[in-house]
Amino acid sequence: MWVRILALLVGGLLLGSCDGIHQPRSSPLQGTDGRTYRFPSDLQGRVVVVSFIYTHCPDICRMTIGHLLDVWDRVGKDTSVVFATITLDPARDTLETLRQYAEVWQLPPERWLLLTGTVADVERVHQAFGVVARKSYTERLPNGEEVYFVDHTDAVFLLDRQGIVRDRREGSTLDAAAYAALVQRYAYAR
Questions:
Q1: Exposed end of the chain (fewer CB within 10 Å): N or C?
Q2: At what angle do helices 176-188 and 60-75 cross, to 10 degrees?
Q3: Could you state, in order of their start, the residue ranges of all structural domains in the chain?
Q4: 46-65, pLDDT tens digit by residue?
Q5: Residue 32 DSSP one-character state
């Protein structure tokens, strides 16, 4: 098990390192607002805070969303900033599941998108950002439901108005004040 976790971490570092500036390729994703987005290209012209979570996550994703809510409180009034959270588990994170998640976390629907799609489309977005998401041990309940966790990269990305990744850092240890200042710097840059 430790070997697998180490491989995921190393793979996430190799795939997800932002030692260079890049513009992720877009894929179609559905938002809880009822729209289909070519993500991230449809959000060009705005600064985008991109995160990856899954709704059954017991720890890392909750910490990430908590920190991002703090960032939102600091920059949320700026209409040039959008938060986009993409699922790591499209099989279980349906639009309805994501809507319920947004309600529980009180995510502001006006500029915080929760996105899902087909497994293939979501995986293309993961690859474009260098995010790793792998099912852990799977168990089947008597009713046929699968029970599993997802081993995943812990990353938040900042895209500038041209859709170029300008920053990548861990979401679970995010310093909300410093990150909000960074987001605002890109929001005010014209």
A1: C
A2: 50
A3: 2-16+24-188
A4: 999 999 999 999 999 999 99
A5: T
Locate 148 and state its tokens.
Answer: 């599993």
CB 117, CB 89: distance < 8 Å: no
User: Cα 48 to the chain's mean position, in Å?
Assistant: 11
**Six-digit token string for 23:** 């513009």
Helices (H), 76-171: 95-105, 119-129
pLDDT of res. 43 = 94
Question: What average pLDDT score do residues 74-98 get?
Answer: 94
Find residue 139's DSSP bridge partners: 147
Q: How many residues does the chain have?
A: 190
CATH code of domain 2-16+24-188: 3.40.30.10
In this structure, how many other beta carbons lie within 10 angstroms of the beta carbon of residue 105?
18
Please give the structure tokens belonging to residue 65. 């969303």
Pairing outcome for strands 139-140 and 36-39: unpaired
